[in-house]
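Q: What would this chain look like folded?
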Amino acid sequence: MSTSVEFARMNGLGNKILVVDMRGRLDRVTPEAAIALNADVETRFDQIMAIHDPRRDGTDAFIDILNCDGSKAQACGNGTRCVVQALSAETGRKSFTFQTVAGILNAIEHEDGTISVDMGTPIFTWDKIPLSEEFFDTSRIELQIGPIDDPILHSPSVLSMGNPHAIFWVDRDVMSFDLGRFGPLLENHPMFPEKANITLAQVTSPSSLTTRTWERGAGLTLACGSAACAAGVSAARTGRTGRTVTINVASSPSRQPLVIDWRERDDHVIMTGPAEWEWSGSVDPTTGAWQREAENSAELGAKAR
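A: My prediction, written as structure tokens:
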């Protein structure tokens, strides 16, 4: 078996994604390879989306997701859109069903190039998120950072979108907060036994939010699809917006916004947005050693430009 596989450097709203083709192989991308790839400025990433042969009837692939610290991730909406774009370019198909450790994801590429991913239903029960303390109402829990009488952040909405999220509501520019300092403290707070994605969200209209996210296992990120879903759901759940919202990512303001639709008929969360191919290459999934290929020899994602 060849030591190298094809991969594509892509992004979803600036969220840096490596899509690695592991089909036809029994091995996996190792944590060591992930750490080595992230240490290189040219292959630095937020998530690796490793495409494996399907493990379940009725699915097109199993997607193994790794964070840049080598840890496993349960969900990555922006990365899923990148996978759809790469596979659509390869096969000509427009709809796909993927299995992840968080469950089944259905996705479709539209004629305008945007991609919708059914992210499933949100989970609000405290022990399923999970939290370390029982809360009857997880739309607002007791958690703050800063002085007791004047907290910097407080009372987040918490839920799971296949991975745990805490949404802190703020009334000023989300970029004015030092999320690089607060993010690690909140990600690793004892309230979150499996850690958590930390998002600052500002309501900008009855149908729009601006967000910024500290991503579990990845740190500050330009965008996080599951966090956008969590923010959209939480905004509707707390009466701040309706069930369909536009998410503008403050750390990547020039990029196309996401549309989050928390569908009323079945409570599924549908995320729609773009994906972008950057370049392709080959990588050793054990060591992370990689090589960039010429445009005309790249395979995975080459048609997705």
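The mean pLDDT is 93.
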